[in-house]
Amino acid sequence: MPGARPSSTPATEARSLRAAIERANHAYYVLDAPVMPDAEYDRLFRRLQELEAAHPELMTADSPTQRVGAPPRADLPEVRHRVPMLSIRTETDAGPEGARAFDARIRRELRLVADDPAVEYSAELKFDGLAVSLRYEHGVLARAATRGDGEVGEDVTPNVRTIRSIPLRLGGVTAAVLEVRGEVFMRRDEFERLNERRRAADEKVFVNPRNAAAGFLRQLDSRITASRNLSFYCYGLGESDGWDVPRTHSAVLAALSSMGLPVADDRTVARGADELIAFHAAVAARRDRLPFDIDGVVYKVNSLELQRELGFVSREPRWAVAHKYPPQEEVTQVLGIDVQVGRTGKITPVARLAPVFVGGVTVSNATLHNEDYIRALDLMIGDTVTVRRAGDVIPQVVAVLPERRPAGARAFAMPTACPVCGSSVERDAEEKDLRCSGGLFCPAQRKQALLHFAGRRALDIEGLGDKLVEQLVEADLVRTPADLFRLDLATVEQLERMGRKSAENLLQALERARHTTLERFVYALGVRHVGESTARDLARHFGSLDALGAASEAELLEVPDVGPVVAASVARFFAEPHNREVIAQLRKAGLEWTEGAAQRTAAGHLAGKTFVLTGTLPHWTRDEAKGRIEAAGGKVAGSVSGKTDYVVAGDAAGSKLDKAREFGVAIIDEAQLKRLLEA
Ligand code: IVH
What we know:
This protein has about 675 residues and is an alpha+beta fold. It contains 25 helices and 26 strands. The longest helix has 21 residues, at about 10-30. The radius of gyration is 31 Å and the shape is globular.
């Protein structure tokens, strides 16, 4: 396993673990430059806890296990928490079993028997950010502090004041002291924007939203914090004086929310284990669509009285548990770097990894995008890296751990010839990518082109997958998509893993694929830069393949949403004799598609005019109005800019109307739009 060292004695192992943990703490909390992902930190920490439990004589007062967090950075003022900021017991998420075990434990502690009613819980998200305490005095935000080691944190008041969602004054609150606790985090969209900008400026990117949030929250210069859109959700209460505290945790959250504090809607009051399980399942299903990262769920006994009765074990409340999802980041070693050749010849470097379990699957490859990406990471073969797999996103190498670079690490160079067909490699003028110049001569491109042609959203040839295409190309039975339609039963039957039945099925699928639509056919051709929606636009605009094939770049540019790159690519494709030949062969093979009348949007009398719709129109729905404008050649945009010609305003029109006035754009109503359309 990466990171594991042959352990000598428990004493030396404990010493080296402490050193490693302290180094990681310093890097994370003080330098804002993490040197290991959380999963590994947790593992080292747990191992140290185990060792100290088994060998109490090894325990030292300064062991990192003796405090909840990290030391405050010396350059932010210290704040002592009057009520310590504790952590909660964290378990690796075990799904329904975990919820049942927690409920059973609570019932045992409360000495409940089977007939007693279900315990009520507050079920919440576990936000993946930084714990922060907000102290309101007489309703006014007086101080904000990080958790630090739980006893002493850092004063981040000026920084927190820049977080727009945090009220500086609470509504209707006179309590002398009300200390609210919650999590500061960065939304995913904000994180992406931030990294995009940093990448463009050749600056180091943040590994994940939490590191970015930590970096900005703990800035000495709060103007830098203000430049970022940080978010906050509260999840609990600290000190309070002069506030009539409600009797349940859920009522506390509701009260905080009514004072104007941000509280996440994704929470529920769950009765018994079954309802906890239902919450868990609902969150798991929504997780990837949430606008921010979570790393698990939290269950808390809802009644504050029962919380008091349950109390604490060491520094963790007995009444709460966090069930943490399997890590989305792990460390592993890069064993090698392969290059893959895609459908359009793009050469992509791929890291071959020592297999690691991350984001719920075992990962042994991760894309490295292109040469620039490798350079930005400063990656060498042999390096230990952080791999991230979030949701169904393909695994990424997000960082190199430079201090673990082995002596024999090797630099990687992109190939100068295609590794599959030996053709020369060219660098795109407009992009950072390298491309094999072999075109369909290159078996790798041929395979990918065939797979694309047969794909579900193209001609949908069921059964024509990876393995089969591989064989067909290797045996030189198929060179172009047209060859597919010349396959016969005898040939197909002979292929590996191809009984009579599957051979027949494939031929039937090919037969079905002979009848398709123009837009699917255009998409299936695999023209560079032509995705599904562009294929649809092209098919509608030109109505027939001949018209599309004959179109000049200027004519292609008349299609809405087609820009110079796409127009050039389409024109180049049809100018290529080889491509025309393949299309002719496909036609000869009996391939046919429905061709419609050209819907030359640009020919409409509103061509070149841009509309923005706002508010509710009296007779038309927004889609209807949009359809009519587009049918007349006009374009409908989402927001008002200097390029907008008309804003169509209905009832309850909002800020777009102000924008229209600001830009001096004509504002019309539905009746006027109707006249314009009929003109
Ligand atoms: S309750 C005494 N609720 O996860 C209980 N914590 O240890 C205090 N966290 O330090 C924590 N979401 O930073 C609580 N809904 C939630 C949370 C949450 C995230 C963080 C918090 C805490 C850590 C768990």
